[in-house]
Amino acid sequence: MEFRDLKKQYQVLKNDIDQAMIDVATSGAFIMGGPVKELEHELADYVGVKHCLSCANGTDALTLALKALGVGKGDAVFVPDFTFFSSAEVVSLEGATPVFVDVDPRTFNLDPKSLEDAIRSVLDQMTLRPKAVIAVDLFGLPANFPAIREITKREGLYLIEDGAQGFGGSIRLPKPDGDGFEVRRACSFGDISTTSFFPAKPLGCYGDGGAVFTDNDEWAALIESYRVHGKGSFKYDNVRIGLNSRLDTLQAAILRIKLKAFREYELNDVNKAAEYYTQLIDGMTKFIKKEIQITTPHIPNGYTSSWAQYTIKLSVPSGEGSVNRAALQAKLKAKGIPSMVYYPTPMSKQTAFKEVHKYALTMNAERLAESVLSLPMHPYITREEIRAIAEALISSI
Ligand SMILES: *Cc1c(COP(=O)(O)O)cnc(C)c1O
Fold first, then answer.
1. Does residue 137 line the site of ligand 1, with CB under 6 A?
2. What per-residue confidence (pLDDT) applies to 30?
3. Ligand 1 in contact with 87 (CB < 6 A)?
4. What is the pLDDT of residue 288?
5. From the CB of 160, is ligand 1 less than 6 Å away?
6. CATH fold of 266-396, please?
7. Ligand 1, closest atom to CA 136?
8. Ligand 1 centroid vs 212 CA: distance in angstroms?
9. What's the confidence (pLDDT) of residue 351?
10. What CATH class does 6-257 carry?
């Protein structure tokens, strides 16, 4: 069994993907060929924003966002303590300072209350200037953007959505004119939003890739410049220091095929798989010792996830009812079931950030790092596989 079965997906889409790759090779337009612009239009249209600019990977997408917003030395950028390293790495790379914020133990996403505390604390100490928030859509679930946006508006901060795992998720929100509701997709919630096309993400290519989304014309123009060596009016007119960060035509052509499958059935299928997982695991927990808790993912009302991961929480690692996670993983592995720990270390405990001052307590992040476990998840997983995983999980505890 695969943790995320990319080979199965390829078998299903093989004819179209092979043809798309041959078309690019035949055209010889490997850099910024036709499929790049076409993909950008399709992505902007799907997400519901004015501009989409593709780039080399999801980390560069965040860097491009920070550059466009002018984030640099002396700036505090608020980042959840429980995320992939990139979300905070890019902040330090731009010379700014990441301020780690705690997460909600139920959604794993940035906790608005902790964000407010961290902003207060930075303002009180008067060494850094609060500048931006990077909110992450962890495991595919959009962050609490209604609450976070209220805070960034009040405090005059930029909001960046790190949608590397969130592409395809959504939130049902009241319309701005107050007349009914609308569904807004992930990668539309930030002043600038980003995603990654790393193969294992909800929408993945066959290598590295990423994209930046914004409604703002000025920032879009800046990002277009920054992604090609800070170009000005033409390629050899360089007006600022930038990056070499383009999406290959080959990857764009592959992504166009995959986006179609994602929209037509993959997103729906992965949601059905998650529903079945939760129904089975919740139903089976009555067969284990009552002190032990297995918590299935929480999706708040009005939210949908794109299920980058299906992540359960195990009882605390010490005391009565505790589950030995490493031993559990070994038992699953012996039954041919892969599992992963996303993520074993909170950002504030990473060696690379040991010099970074802590402004907020991040107990939930610390607890989650010890208790989460991600199970195999992808649109092509079968009900039989999910049943086998759930049974193996319960019998291994
Ligand atoms: C994967 C990921 C990134 C970085 O994307 P790459 O394409 O691997 O550079 C950034 N943030 C989060 C939350 C991610 O999961």
1. no
2. 98
3. yes
4. 86
5. no
6. Aspartate Aminotransferase, domain 1 (3.90.1150)
7. 13
8. 13
9. 98
10. alpha beta
Calculate how far, in angstroms, residue 376's C-alpha sits from the geometric centre of ligand 1: 19
Helix, strand, coil in percent for the chain, rounding step 5: 45, 20, 40
Is the CB–ligand 1 distance for residue 353 below 6 Å?
no
- Residue 87's beta-bridge partner residues? none
Q: Which atom of ligand 1 is nearest to the CA of 165?
A: 15
Q: State whether the beta carbon of 83 lies less than 6 angstroms from ligand 1.
A: yes
CA–CA separation, 43 vs 49, rounded Å? 9
User: From the alpha carbon of 208, which atom of ligand 1 is closest?
Assistant: 7
pLDDT for res 286: 83
Q: Tell me how far the alpha carbon of residue 322 lies from the centroid of ligand 1, in angstroms.
A: 31
Same fold, 6-257 and 266-396: no
Report the candidate in 306, 376, 303 with the shortest Cα–Cα distance to residue 143.
303
Condensed to tens digits (0 to 9), the pLDDT of residues 66-81 reads: 999 999 999 999 999 9
For residue 9, the one-letter residue type is Q
Q: Classify residue 15 as exposed, middle or buried by CB count within 10 Å of its CB (0-12, 13-18, 19+).
A: exposed
**CB within 8 Å of 301: residues ≥ 6 apart:** none
Beta-strand runs (E) in 120-204: 129-136, 158-162, 170-174, 181-185, 192-196
Give the closest residue (by CA) to ligand 1 atom 6. 58
Mean pLDDT by 10 residues, the chain (397 residues): 97 98 98 98 98 98 98 98 98 98 98 98 97 98 98 98 98 92 98 98 98 98 98 94 98 98 98 98 88 94 98 80 89 98 98 96 96 98 98 94
- pLDDT of 397 reads 87
DSSP conformation class of 167: T
395 CA from centroid of ligand 1 (Å): 34
Indicate the domain borders of the chain: 6-257, 266-396
